[in-house]
Amino acid sequence: MAQLERAKFGSKLGVILATAGSAVGLGNVWRFPYLAGENGGAAFMLVYIGCVLLLGMPCMVSEFIVGRRAQANAARAFRMLGGRTPLALVGYMGVITGTLITGYYAVVSGWCLEYIYASAAGHFAGAGPAEVSRYFADFETDPVRPIVWMVLVFLATHWVIVHGVRDGIERASKLMMPALFILLLIVVVASCLLPGAVRGIEFLFKPDFSKVTGGVFLSALGQAFYSLSIGMGCMCTYASYFGRQTRLGSSAMQIGVIVILVAVLSGLMIFPAAFSVGIKPDSGPSLIFITLPNVFREAFGFAPVLGYVVAVLFYVLLTLAALTSLISLHEVSTAFLHEELHITRRRAATIVTATGIVLGGLCSLSLGGREWLTLFGRPLFELCDFVTGQMLMPFGGILICLLVGWYLSHKLVRDEFTNWGTLPGRYLRLFVFCVKYVCPICIVLIFLNQLGLL
Ligand code: PHE
């Protein structure tokens, strides 16, 4: 029944754009620079790229295989294919992970909305680095404003979700992705032309391997999974909308390349400017928000109107990129509730939106120094980011690899990988080797190292 009802992505381009739309978002533009800044820059970036290619790609293809084969939401997909093993539970874990990310992700998306408003209203005009930092700190800790923006973000997401897969997600992605990319390039050039920008470029490209610790590995690994939207059933849910002709391997590679490219460009946008105006690279989650207004002010000093337009447009596109990712996160839980509880999509979406708003509200409030929203010494916001990005997603990745590498029949894997023998499947053996051995072993080693057991 559910199989007949499932929508499909309309075209090959639609598949790439929608999955890339999920992957490219705040993870690349906001999270990557702040983690790279905290973890030594270039060395982190190298480890990150290695993790995307070596561990992320096989995991992504594995998720595609599970999703397309099962043609169902993440929880049901893993239940169907995982049989009576604990691997059947991966999908449920994914729904929980997705819900946890959705809340605070919408908060950061709301910050982008505030920045559209603030730059359009000219609040950053003439503000130096110190004023911008103060503006952000005041805003971030405000009990009301960030929450209002977050609710708006959720309403927009909700609207797209109830309008269905093909119409909503696909149409949205087609337009926004290329536009964001072009604007990113413009801002990169602007940032690299600032006085003293060279030190930022060196920070990003001249690795200092003495800075590589176990923690750097775990952060880079988590960031690889986070930026690819894997390890929690999101790509699996999207793959359930793939047609039989979608090439799983090359789709994954294309997304991997896009994600790496956007991350590197985001680094090139932030660090030269940060070094130029004297912002510390390890400023944490606020890094891009306290840096960007300085780029627009300083680099476009010769033509303030142009700076104004570029700034507003940039925040608009960043918000839209965040929205496509948020939509994919929302979709995981919505498809789950819709198909498992047999309620309408609209009702399922309403439950997810309401839960997200409550969770997002708490995350946002936790940044205002409220004791009761602090756990293990971290505000709820940071805790959600850490637990999902550095623990649950890589852990989900191990389980997905175990399922595809060891549990599913080789024939099933081969069929999906080669589109039922219509593709040569040149990399099939390499893929199987990676999911069987390389990915699970590497991820476990990184975890053990972090726990101090290695
Ligand atoms: N990959 C998205 C980003 O980089 C975040 C995301 C994670 C989306 C997990 C969906 C699922 O912004």
How is the secondary structure organized here?
Layout: H1 2-5, H2 12-23, H3 26-38, H4 42-70, H5 74-82, H6 90-120, H7 129-140, H8 145-162, H9 165-192, H10 197-205, H11 214-228, H12 234-239, H13 248-277, H14 287-299, H15 304-340, H16 345-366, E1 374-375, E2 378-379, H17 380-407, H18 410-417, H19 428-450
Antiparallel strand pairs: 1-2
The structure holds phenylalanine.
Which structural class fits the helix and strand makeup?
A: mainly alpha
Instruction: Please tell me what the overall shape is.
Output: globular
Count the beta strands.
2
Q: Biggest sheet, open or closed, and with what strands and sense?
A: 2 strands, antiparallel
User: What is the number of helices?
Assistant: 19
> How much of the polypeptide forms β-strand, as a percent range?
under 5%
**Strands across the major sheet, in which order?**
1-2
Give the CA-CA distance, first to last residue.
49 Å
Radius of gyration: 21 Å
User: Which ions, cofactors or small ligands are bound in this entry?
Assistant: phenylalanine
Measured as a percent range, the helix fraction is over 70%
Q: What are the low-pLDDT stretches, counting only 5+ consecutive residues below 50?
A: none
Residue-averaged pLDDT, rounded? 92
